[in-house]
TrEMBL record, chains A, B, C, D, E, F:
Name of the protein in its database record: Germin-like protein
InterPro entries: Cupin_1, Germin, Germin_Mn-BS, RmlC-like_jellyroll, RmlC_Cupin_sf
Organism lineage: Eukaryota, Viridiplantae, Streptophyta, Embryophyta, Tracheophyta
Gene3D superfamilies in the cross-refs: Jelly Rolls (2.60.120.10)
Described purpose of this protein according to its UniProt entry: May play a role in plant defense. Probably has no oxalate oxidase activity even if the active site is conserved.
GO cellular component terms listed in the entry, alphabetical order: apoplast
Family: Belongs to the germin family.
Signal peptide stretch: 1-22
Residues annotated for oxalate binding in this entry: 109, 114, 119
Binding positions for Mn(2+) per the UniProt entry: 112, 114, 119, 160
PROSITE patterns named among the record's database cross-references: GERMIN
Keywords from the UniProt entry: Apoplast, Disulfide bond, Glycoprotein, Manganese, Metal-binding, Secreted, Signal
Length: 224, 224, 224, 224, 224, 224
């Protein structure tokens, strides 16, 4: 009962300060070091917005070790993204970093969108065929083949992909302009949604018969 | 006693994360679904910034029914605004919507300011004489008469009004560029404030004698 | 020759002021009234960011007439969007408005994303089956059936669609939280890009054979 | 003819860069030093957004002399505001400064709004009765009497005023949170607009008869 | 136990609402009045982002008295800054104010940076030799000598200083474009850090031998 | 003469649109591809804010080749930064990338500040001793030793450095949260400014005699 009272009080305080922040966006502290969530409240905490007192910040809060370790790519598309978020680096803010491993001969990072970030890809190993689609001019495809030492920019909010055409594995370092780039993988969202989309809608939108839609929904089921 | 301890802890956390957000403004979740405040802590909660876990979001959180119902306009100015805020649509963010009903033959939405939003008015029924006043060039009045199917823009922060000159009631749909447009109704703020303004100040500012100011303060008393 | 000199000078000035604007984002004028581009320099000008002197602004700059006129929906998907941008309302800023007409019995506004805006849809006529897909939790589909007077919110950056299930035409008013919501129609971007995507990439990404991909690319060709 | 060509080209360039600036707001230069407009194109240039090459910046661009000189207050309300904008300090950005002189025994800075800035007033001489009106809670008046050495904050977008009740003149330093605070003086905008407002609208909004409105419109005519 | 449960719940709520605020930055309340922190959680609360219910706001929340009192300057550099933050004015937001007192004949405000704010200095008494260093063009020094009534602007993020060359004390009013300008005093950060910097690094960076570095670290020890 | 007329016209247009952009910050185009400046107007253009028509964008505009090439580190501090700006990648926006090469046994990237960006450093080769200094708590030094595969974050606006302690050369990839991180190298700004600082000021600020200041100013002269 008393607990309920205090709960109400503190959410009230939290909101008050949030709502009033519209007027002055200058950062009020040097950095935000995310603290672990002892109660498993999920995704929000993994974004690291829950900060510790700056007095308690330590070097390890700004540090990650092991980005040089190769990742397994034995999955359907043949690629694995390792994103460093505030789960890995509590002191991260303003941008984020990832490494992407691609299987030899066709490892694919399939068409997807990062709604919150522009991406810079730096290729360290392999040969990548990359592309993105512009919205204005409408649906224009821009592609390039990358070799080690090449750098490529994928603008914020546009559909893009990478394919490894080398017969050895590929490795890229990805920099994002937000601590939380976000991702929408097109095929998974369209054909692997839960619950599944109405088949008539997808059939009309994608000009496929409902049997093909049904086949695709089976294939992508459980991707989420 | 322990409750008090937890209360302090959690407001500290909430602030820490707020203060540190100055560096990276990209949204970190798809949306914010406001949750009801069980303890009536007031205005802040009606802004809906207290969000539920995205896992618990449901279609109803993004839905409102009944905007087509005509509202009563039997009041002094002869108009009624029905604003959809996060009280009505918990998942609302980034903009807001309203309908305005006007009485026949002179229903008036009196001179007011939305400090946080530009407004687009779409007229569905009636004839509206509308206007706004620019600050630069100083005090220039821009007016227009609107008929059904007409759309008009009222720029953010400028004094504006609408008057229904049709002999039937009028209906407009209002879109605002903020989830919280805010409103300052000039006559109510000046003559209906509580406590009332010093009469000498209003007399000097508005070039009226103190008796007229007194008369007006009586008329507008209790408008808040 | 002198003309070239002045051109260089003025682009330099324009940039200087742009680059320096990072420090103070408060609007410095009441509004921006777009002026027509006499030289057909294209999309940028249609965004209306080229403003006229405020002294020259007139009521018509904030006005549009004819949003009540029904639009033709005789096209493959059976829907037509009429967006009011600064081409139609030069004084528009901060948000935008559209009407969407849907054909009876299956008029579809197919899956698409507005990268820059949250959308509020107000249904005036017809019955719409609507839905959007969340990115977190991953690929969750949220759907609702709307009737006249219903309002629904589509969060910024998420894939969404509407289908008219009534046997009469449907009409919706759409409000967007940006003057430039932008749009990426998924099927057109994936299968109708120019030049077409590499078939092996789409076949692998969408789990279809290259013949089906070829079929789809023929179907969507020329959609741009 | 060629001149016309270059004009079109350069406005195109300027716009292109402006429109693309939505993604990255970090200032790209140390400061913007406004340059004078040789052609009197008005307010825009006086805002100082037209910057000179940083190489050419000099100490005088960040300097103003004479804020200590007393200003004349022999006008109807008995107060004079001296705002330092980029007309006076070309290198100004992010905030602005003013001095306000008040006549003895009733010098008034009448009810007005700064739509773009919070104000901090520092009183150096005189006795000021000050107040502002909140919008939430609606129309609440908050007042205070200030003496030399006192500081008072007027929140952004709220109606506020100051009255000198001392029998000597008063002097205040005003700091604003924007380089362009903007101002809407309520009485002038309502009763002194050009063209004048429709009397029936003001009579209904302010609960005055049209004769009084007519009288007020005559009084405030020519204030702009 | 139950207390722990509620603590988890409320931090979760607070974060949810914070994370979702990326989409709509318009202020949702008139102002934020900071409330005192009863549990001494430190710096975050002194930034005043913990707001009270607007219903409870009172004039004193926007008020400070005594900025006219002269401050002691008997310290090593011969200057004292008195900053008004939300500790002194709970209702402060969007900008801040300070007074700086300088000792006669060489009172110095040593080279420092305000990472979050542009500063406007208004000199009321004394003679100040002031300067700042640009980053582009690289390391250019811009200086000026100020007399009473002079105003000078120090752009955001640049190293700057002031020296009183008068044989009487000096007094300046400082306005900042953020409620939290922040400060990095160069000599203290470099030579007075705790723990001290590695001497070889400073010796190489500043082209001094390690004995001089050691001497300086002793001199600046305990400045923090 | 006519050329002068067009110049005035077009800078006016450019400013008008800039000033009005305060209300709506959503990007209005997919990206900005910087175009080369044919007239050498300098730094502003190297920031790439002058964009080409999106129709003319090509893959090469988003591409850079050769980041894998080792750079020479034979300079006084023993390190070389290679920053990819819009000079190298015209389509860059929202973030930037660099490689830093360090000489064996003491290659130093001396204490400096990036006023506009948080930095993520990824170490590929060598052993780096790194550190940064917080402003709150005041002048606290946080250090770490990095090995290949390690990642470290340097928060925006804080003084930081890196020293290679390996007996082979070191290589790091640097990601920045702005397309224009900016840099202020402390020792160069303080002792290498042009014109030089007044020696008495530096002597008092750094607790050194004027002979040592003179010696340092000679050493750092011509660093700009």
């Amino acid at each position: 009962m008393r607990g309920g009272y205090f709960h109400a009080t503190c959410t009230f305080f939290a909101l008050a300060s949030l709502l009033a922040s519209g007027d002055d966006f200058t950062p009020q502290v040097d950095f935000c070091v995310a603290i672990n969530n002892p109660n498993g409240n999920g995704a929000y905490f993994s974004n690291g917005e829950l900060c510790k007192n700056a007095e308690a910040a330590k070097a390890e809060d700004f540090y990650f070790s092991g980005l040089d370790a190769t990742r397994e790519t034995d999955n359907r598309v043949g690629s694995t993204i390792t994103l460093l978020s505030t789960n890995q680096i509590p002191g991260l803010d303003g941008l984020s970093l990832a490494r992407t491993d691609y299987a030899p001969n066709g490892g694919l990072n399939p068409p997807h969108i990062h709604p919150h970030a522009t991406e810079i890809l730096t290729l360290l190993r392999g040969i990548l065929h990359v592309g993105f689609i512009t919205s204005s001019p409408e649906n224009r495809l821009i592609t390039k083949t990358l070799h080690p030492g090449d750098v490529f920019v994928f603008p914020i909010g546009l559909i893009h992909y990478q394919l490894n055409t080398a017969n050895n594995s590929a490795l890229a370092i990805n920099s994002f302009s937000s601590k939380n780039p976000g991702v929408i993988t097109i095929a998974n969202a369209i054909f692997g949604s839960h619950p599944p989309h109405n088949r008539e809608i997808l059939a009309k939108a994608f000009q496929l018969n409902t049997d093909t839609i049904n086949f695709l929904q089976q294939r992508f089921k459980g991707n989420q």
